[in-house]
Structures are given as C-alpha cells and as structure tokens.
Amino acid sequence: MADGLTISPIAGALGAEISGIDLSAELSNEQFTAIHRAFLDHHVIFFRDQNGLTPDAHKAFARRFGTLNVHPYVKGMADHPELLEIIKEPEDTVNFGGGWHTDMSFLEKPALGSLLYAVQVPESGGDTLFANQIAAYEALSDGMKAMLAPLKAIHSASREYSAAGHSAQARKSMQASTATEAPEYEHPVIRTHPESGRKGLYVNPAFTLRFSGMSRAESKPLLDFLFNHSRDERFTCRFRWSAGALAFWDNRCCWHYALNDYAGQRRHMRRATVNGDRPV
Ligand code: SIN
Fold first, then answer.
1. Does pTM surpass 0.85?
2. Any idea which residues carry the catalytic annotation?
C-alpha cells in the first residue's frame, strides 16, 4: 500500500496491477510519485475499472509522464491526433497483432511509454503479453554481453508500415499510410535505461532491420537468437483485459504482443504514446 494505492505484482518477471486510484481525477504529487515508482520497478502497470475514461482524461494522465507523440504513419482520432484507435471488428480477417515489438523504436527518439485503454474487449481472448528486456539482458552469458556491448542496430518503420507490411495490413481501421521511404536510425543494442540506469536489450523483430555495418543476411542469425531469447516465457507476463482497464508499459525496456485469438468478436482499444529520448 502506498499513498492509498495497492500495488500487486502479476508475475515474477514484470507487471503489477494498481488499485485505489481514479485516473480521470487529477493526481496528487504523492500519487504520481507512487505510480512512477511502480512503473520503473515493474515496467508495465495495469489499472482496472477506469470506466468511461475520456480521451481528454487519458491524455491528461499520459502527459504527467511527458509530451505525447502523434504517430507519423497512422492517423489518430479526429479530435485527438495523439490517440490511436486500435480496433478489430468481428468480420475482420486481417492478421491483427501477433508480433512482438517495442513501440516507435523506428524514431530517432523512440517512445518512453504507451498507455493502452480498453474501450471494448472480447468475452475471451485478446490478451496482451509483455517481455522484460532487462531480465533478458541479465540472463545472457558474460561472453554474449561483451560481444553485444559495442554493437548498434538499424531501426526503421519501412518494413512494418510499408503498404505490404504487417502493421499496415493489420490496421486498416487505423488508416495506416505507407512508409516505404521511412528513415533509418541507429540505436545501441544494449540500452541503459535513462531513469533506472539498468541495462536491457534494445532490438525488436518489428523494427530492427540489421546491425550497423552489417548486411541483413549477416545480422540475421544473431538477431534471430536475440529475438527468440527475448521472448522466453521466464521474462514475460500476460494481461487479461477487462473493459475500462488501462495498461502503461515502458517501451525503453519492454516488448509487447497483442494476441489475435478472438475471431468473430470486437476489440476496441485506444493508445496514447509518451515521447522519449535518444537511447544510449
Ligand atoms: C499495441 O501494439 O500498441 C497494441 C497492443 C494491443 O492491442 O494489445
């Protein structure tokens, strides 16, 4: 219990549910500090029963953590360009979700965190999985850590958000536009978290194309190893959504994965993304 909040871890690796807070009300500094601490300690935090959280309240809570991103390739809500609607209709047959990633690592300054709010959820299915990239890094051998330490990797939206890309195909309701000419940015493979100082792996299957100074073919074996390692079950947690729940994850040290196992049902989510800084 901290400042009226109860913080309950949901798994060994990461993730905690926080109760005793109404996110539509203005947070006291004590509440903000406790939530911020839980966010750094658990990497992804969950709030249930925030029913009817308005877009303005969603943005106001997100803004306590930084400025909000307007997605360069996906159109936001009409009156709230900082909020992305992530909707899968019952009749949609597209291969929605189903890919581990870190939001916006294709930017020069990738996202700090994402706040995903559940407007409508399927009766069963549609969970989101998270993977702790600090734990994934710490589990590597000293030899692998030393080999990765000087490496940088190239990230871009060009594959995922180009017309044929997985995200562009899957997110028709989000009006994805093409990103074939998206720029490439170089980020360290091992990232030091700017707030906790802890080291974590910072590559992901959606947006990391190759290691700097190497071809895709040369990069593939080691990237494939890291992608498999990073989603090992022992580094993960899984969140079962309920309408009105909000998840806030740290993109600087987490991957996430939207499970597409609810054919014929509707799922409607809304996401705010907080801008971050340049990885070091
Ligand atoms: C996302 O990748 O930002 C959305 C995750 C989800 O819909 O569970």
1. yes
2. 101, 103, 256, 271
